[in-house]
Design brief:
CATH topology: TIM Barrel
Number of helices: 10
CATH class: Alpha Beta
Distance between the termini: 19 Å
Shape: globular
Largest sheet: 8 strands, parallel
Number of domains: 1
Structural class: alpha/beta
Number of strands: 8
Length: 280
């Protein structure tokens, strides 16, 4: 296929910490980031809102959260979403197991995610898209709730995180576990109502999630198919990031890659046009 590549570069986890917020702002101001997804449950949510308000051309979506953080909504149903400490479960896999056992109250899921969307809207931010922390929005049952909330709130686009397997992934034996997770996510997406919603033609960034340094970004950009609109997920931040250490994310390295002049040169060489989620 020939034709220009339209690339949405979306920074996840906006609002989780001020160090991430500053990294997102830098990657937008000086780099190739075109949109971001804010966490209504994040410790630095208000700080993120201030940054977004001062950058009206930065497209903003909601990064729906059902893991790691504390819920916005309390009540009996909410206890099916949390552990003994009152926080969400640590990982999407744990949430999926609870869903398979029938121990997850989808009414509580709807109430919580609706509250997160409403908090972002109440802050005065225009919501262009929805996606999920640890891709929780693609889980069976939860995906249907997210699709219905998108329609109810008039939100046009929802991330479809089904990254295709590409040749460079098969050359890295150390990435086998990540590749298996990627395949599982593709399977979940294929069975979900997200597949019929407005979305990009392709999604990339899961395989290199948290380690999208300049070398890996160059590999990824070289493999982008022509003539399509593609969403690239990234996680820029600054080196003083203190939350989410257990993820072992290369926050600062991603920010450096996204702001590197060499990255701009690669995009220009391939004829890539940067777009935001709201105009994709």
């Amino acid at each position: 296929m020939t034709g220009a590549i339209r690339l949405i570069v979306n920074a996840d986890d906006f609002g989780i910490a001020e160090a991430v917020n500053r990294g997102v702002a830098e990657a937008f101001d000086r780099g190739i980031v075109t949109s971001t997804s804010i966490m209504a449950t994040g410790d630095a949510f208000e700080h993120g809102v201030e940054i977004a308000r001062s950058r009206p051309s930065l497209a903003v979506g909601v990064h729906l959260v059902l893991t790691e953080h504390r819920p916005l909504v309390s009540g009996h149903g909410a206890t099916t979403l949390t552990g003994p400490d009152g926080r969400f479960l640590a990982h999407t896999v744990e949430l999926a197991r609870r869903r398979l056992r029938g121990a997850l109250d989808l009414r509580a899921v709807r109430e919580e995610l609706d509250a997160q969307i409403r908090r972002v809207r109440a802050a005065g931010l225009r919501i262009g898209h929805l996606d999920g922390h640890q891709h929780v929005h693609a889980l069976p049952g939860i995906a249907r709730v997210v699709a219905e909330l998108a329609a109810a709130h008039g939100i046009g686009a929802v991330r479809y995180p089904a990254e295709r397997v590409r040749s460079y992934m098969l050359r890295d034996l150390g990435g086998a576990r990540r590749l298996l997770e990627q395949l599982a996510l593709r399977l979940a997406c294929a069975w979900s109502p997200l597949r019929v919603l407005r979305r990009s033609d392709d999604f990339v960034g899961f395989y290199f999630g948290g380690r999208l340094d300049e070398r890996n970004l160059a590999i990824l950009l070289a493999s982008l198919p022509a003539g399509r609109t593609i969403e690239l997920m990234c996680h820029p931040g600054h080196a003083d990031m203190t939350g989410g250490e257990d993820w072992r994310y290369a926050w600062a390295a991603e920010c450096a890659a996204l702001t590197s002049p060499r990255t701009r040169e690669l995009l220009a060489a391939r004829g890539v046009r940067l777009v935001a989620s709201r105009d994709s």
